[in-house]
Amino acid sequence: MSSINPHFTFNYQQPKDYRFSHDSVFLARRVFEEYADKETSSLRGLDLCAGCGIIGLDFLFHLNKEKNKALASFDFLEIQDVYAPFFAANAQHLSTTRTSLHFVQMNYAALLQPNKENSYDLIVCNPPYFHLQQGKLSPSEFKNRCRFFIDSDFATLFKGLENALKPQGQAYVLVRNQTEHGWDALQEAQKILSSQVKCTVLDDVRGTDLLRITKSSAPPQL
User: Which residues of the chain have pLDDT under 70?
Assistant: First the structure.
């Protein structure tokens, strides 16, 4: 995939200490292509590890501009409160959307709670790529929490994601293999997820795997 974004939406406001990568906008466009011809008006979406809302907002921008479509609602879950004012500023670019937008400051571990079960039809996520033992930490706690699994872990992310998906819901997650550590993200995700979900590599986004996770309509028979 090209490193140049051919589908510009608008200039985002974001913290100067940590800039988003093009992985996020490419993910948003790829998910838009998956949903462009689907009925979306009743769907509830979630941008998980949302930061300043780039993936969800870009996806909704494309959907509105090119297809005149919207979702019923879209939540943006992010644990770091520093992102809240940047999200609010970015959301102004979608002031005409029919989608109800909500910034939710919360640890994604909360998605494991019973009241979050079967909540979302669509989840998009560009999470941290590294475990604590897989790289050098920065002096900045903010940067470390963006890049490393610190507030929770990879297993909790995927377990929470599965719990929060509605039956027949889909999630799109960017993951990066750590080959030098013998760590394969798809294999690890498949170990964590139950047999109720199917997890496959949908695409390669600038050297990062895009996983598509689909939840079946009913739990497996025991």
Answer: 1-5, 17-21, 129-152, 178-183, 218-222
78 CB-near residues (< 8 Å, 6+ apart): 49, 50, 51, 84, 87, 103, 104, 105, 106
The number of domains in the chain is 1
In a domain, 2, yes or no: no
- The structure tokens listed for 77 are 């879950």
Phi-psi region of 159 (alpha: psi -120 to 50; beta: other; left: phi over 0): alpha
The one-letter amino acid code at 113 reads: Q
pLDDT by residue (tens digit) across 174-208?
988 766 656 688 898 999 999 999 999 999 887 78
pTM to 2 decimals? 0.88
